[in-house]
Design brief:
Oligomer: single chain
Number of helices: 2
Number of domains: 1
Strand order of the largest sheet: 1-2-3-4-5
Helix content: 25-40%
Radius of gyration: 12 Å
Largest sheet: 5 strands, antiparallel
Length: about 90
């Protein structure tokens, strides 16, 4: 599972052949969640509220990049790193 971004102890990844809807995985310590790219809602798992807020803030800035990576990973298994939240 490629690492797309990393910031503030949060790791963002995507699977090469994951199921729809388009989503990404966020991990922080013992917490992990799958987050829908379009709605930015948690599909499964959980994150602490502060971490969820940071992930949603980051994802809202990079929705287009996330969708591009989703499509590219599924078609070519290539992706681009996305800048961290600063």
């Amino acid at each position: 599972m490629p690492e797309i971004s990393r910031f503030l102890g949060i790791v963002i990844k995507m699977f090469f052949d994951d199921h729809n809807p388009p989503h990404f995985h966020a991990a922080y310590g013992d917490f992990a969640a799958a987050i829908d790219i379009a709605s930015l809602k948690i599909l499964e798992g959980e994150l602490p509220p502060r971490i969820k807020g940071l992930v949603v803030e980051w994802a809202s800035l990079h929705q287009k990049d996330l969708l591009t990576n989703w499509d590219s990973l599924r078609k070519t298994q290539r992706y681009k790193k996305i800048d961290p939240l600063v």
